[in-house]
TrEMBL record, chain B:
Source species: Cytobacillus gottheilii
Protein name: Helix-turn-helix transcriptional regulator
Keywords of this entry: DNA-binding
Pfam families: HTH_3
Alphabetical list of SUPFAM superfamilies matching this protein: lambda repressor-like DNA-binding domains (SSF47413)
Keyword DNA-binding among record annotations: yes
Domain HTH cro/C1-type: 5-59
PANTHER family, A to Z: TRACRIPTIONAL REGULATORY PROTEIN-RELATED-RELATED (PTHR46558), TRANSCRIPTIONAL REGULATOR (PTHR46558:SF3)
Record has DNA-binding as a keyword: yes
Length: 146, 73
């Protein structure tokens, strides 16, 4: 097959892929909803499609961060916002960790593990946003120098 | 967007297919550009200009009034 070099067709192809993605997502959503109706939330989560759905959502969320950072009108102080995010994430994970540890049937280790996972899962996107903002600041400084 | 690609192409004695092959796109895209139904990227505009031996402003420049009236349509 010949490689497409026509920019119009490349764009059209991307738009087609977007439509296909929407159809696929709708299908996945419908299957998961059906599973949910059949056997509740546990059966829905047991389906490997749930994992596909979650991975896609996470990837899409990370890609959207790129766009949100670019659409920020003013430069956010990246260091400060990272500190705030880290503190908020730490507090939330501590609260959830303590509550889990105090729940009957769960020990202190369960609390530590759940708290730790929440902390890492919250910190990774904050750090990613921080890196994006830092890079944007560098580009902005370059523009100012010119 | 209105442009003078067709005029410049005829002046350069090229067919749509020859111009399309020269810049590595399809004839359909050249046709749409000439009809003003597709806006090429700046890169493609320059490639077209090189092929028809013309300046960018000769082919793609339109006045602000024309631009605004096209936007409103």
């Amino acid at each position: 097959m010949k490689k497409i070099t026509d920019e119009r067709l490349i764009m059209k192809n991307l738009k087609n892929i977007r439509i296909a993605f929407a159809v696929q997502s709708l299908g996945i959503f419908a299957i998961l909803f059906y599973e949910f109706l059949q056997g509740g939330i546990d059966q829905m989560r047991n389906n490997p499609i749930w994992l596909v759905f979650m991975v896609t959502t996470v990837v899409l969320a990370y890609l959207s961060m790129n766009i949100s950072v670019d659409s920020e009108r003013t430069l956010t102080q990246s260091n400060r916002s990272l500190q705030i995010s880290a503190i908020v994430t730490l507090m939330i994970s501590l609260i959830v960790g303590i509550l889990t540890a105090n729940t009957p049937g769960y020990g202190i280790w369960d609390g530590a593990i759940i708290g730790g996972i929440i902390f890492i899962c919250g910190l990774v996107p904050s750090y990613y946003i921080y890196r994006l903002r830092k890079r944007k600041e560098e580009v902005f400084e370059e523009d100012e120098d010119e | 967007m209105k442009n003078n690609v067709k005029l410049a192409r005829i002046k350069a004695n090229l067919t749509q297919q020859q111009l399309a092959d020269g810049v590595g796109i399809t004839r359909q895209t050249i046709s749409l550009i000439e009809k003003g139904k597709y806006n090429p990227s700046l890169k493609l505009c320059l490639q077209i200009c090189y092929r028809v031996n013309a300046q960018l402003d000769e082919i793609f420049w339109i006045s602000e009034e024309e631009f605004n009236s096209e936007e409103n349509n």
